[in-house]
Structures are given as C-alpha cells and as structure tokens.
Amino acid sequence: MGSDKQSKWQEFYAIVKQVPHGKVASYGQIATLAGYYGQARQVGYALHAVPSDDIPWHRIINAQGKISLNLEMGGAVQRKMLEDEGIIFSEAEVISLKKYQWVPQIDPEDNQI
DNA sequence: AACATGACCATTA
DNA sequence: GTAATGGCCATGT
Q: What is the pTM of this model?
C-alpha cells in the first residue's frame, strides 16, 4: 500500500491534516511519521504546492522552532495564524517546541502510553 | 541526462 | 548560542 511515488506527498498532507489546533509540528517530524525519515526537505517541497485549504500548512515549522518562509512569501501570514491559535513567539521569533510540539497519541508499533 | 535550487535535518566544531 | 557540512530527493532548466 502507498508505494506510488505521487502518494508520498499525499501521505504528507494526510499527516499534516492531523495536527490539531494550537499545536505545531516540524518538517522532519512529518517525514518520520509518514515513514520517510530524513526526507524533511520533501515535506517542505510538498507544502509549497499545497492543493487545498483543508491542509493546515501553517502549523509546520522547522526543527529550530522558527518559521522557514520568508516574510514576503507568507511567513508573516503564517505567524499571524499561529498567534491566532494561541501560540506565543519569543523575542527571537522562536516557538517553544517543548510546549507546542504535536505528539501523536497512538503509535503503530511502540506503546508509549 | 546533468546541474542547480529548495517552506529541511542531524551532526560537528 | 551560531556556523558550516553532508545527506535527502523532487522540480525546473
């Protein structure tokens, strides 16, 4: 299942949709959850071409807790949407991953709970 | 086909 | 804390 090359992006989108309101996830996290560890760059590439409005692309930031987009590209829009969800930025424009990073409750192979 | 670019990440110094 | 390096691989020329 899911061996098509095109479905890779679709898997990324499916996981991004699962990120709840008020939480964020990193590009690498999405790639890992989709089963493509190390392909974080492809997640960013996929999100650059988001096909629909149902995908909360703004909840995806980089591993440093910062917004990767340039302000002109839409970084300002992304930041505004995150703040609108109650996420606080530090003085250095950094989001506390410790506090806001999304942690999936169910794991397919490991029982964390 | 080869090369350069890119909404990245982990490691190392 | 920052900066540089290697790796990843889809797209466009």
A: 0.90
